[in-house]
Design goal:
alpha/beta; Rossmann fold; 7-stranded mixed sheet; binds zinc ion
Length: 199
């Protein structure tokens, strides 16, 4: 079934100096004052006509903001910001928390995981999809920035496929290299075996 999609628009942008370099932060949403817009963080020296280094990062408030060791999202985000800060590129930050199930469901899922279920089983136990993430909005943002050829910073082959099918040419994959921590070793293993990630 076709989903009705509201048109994403650039609502605001400003310079954002960070520990990883200076970025231009752009906010995209369909409503002008949407409290949860997607973001694109562009490095200073970006040339959209060349092959652009791109990270498409789905929000993980526990990992990105609170440095949770249950997953490696925060480390992945910082690896990507560092890479883009040094080599130029774009970070697209999509507001689809917890693989699209939302933060409250994600906390419910953690309770199941603490009882021994893996990420996928926990979502199924809650009657939720294993992975409800979509990348259409990322494609819309890339197209609006005039980007058509990218090097994708990811360990997730599904993302490469989704972008290729949407007409964004993925020239190469830049692997995200993270030291595993003890608390997320099981999570990383389930990503590898259940979701086919290249770790
Ligand atoms: Zn995470």
């Amino acid at each position: 079934m076709e989903k009705k999609r509201l048109v994403l628009k650039l609502q605001a942008e400003a310079q954002m100096p960070t520990d990883f370099g200076l970025f231009i932060m752009k906010a995209y949403s369909s409503k002008p004052l949407d409290p949860m817009p997607h973001f694109a963080l562009l490095s200073e020296n970006l040339d959209a006509d060349k092959v652009v280094n791109v990270r498409i990062h789905s929000e993980c408030i526990t990992g990105d903001v609170f440095s949770s060791n249950r997953c490696e999202c925060g480390d992945q985000l910082h690896f990507s910001m560092n890479y883009v800060g040094q080599n130029s590129g774009i970070i697209i930050y999509l507001r689809q928390e917890g693989r699209g199930i939302g933060i409250i469901n994600k906390l419910h899922a953690y309770i199941h995981q603490d009882k021994g279920l893996d990420t996928a089983q926990a979502n199924l136990a809650l009657g939720l999809e294993i992975d409800a993430r979509e990348y259409d909005d990322a494609v819309t943002i890339l197209q609006s920035l005039g980007v058509s050829k990218i090097n994708l910073i990811t360990n997730n082959p599904d993302k490469i496929r989704a972008l290729d099918e949407a007409g964004i040419e993925v020239m190469s994959r830049i692997p995200v290299i993270i030291e595993p921590k003890e608390a997320n070793a099981e999570y990383l293993e389930s990503k590898k075996t259940l979701f086919g990630h290249l770790l």
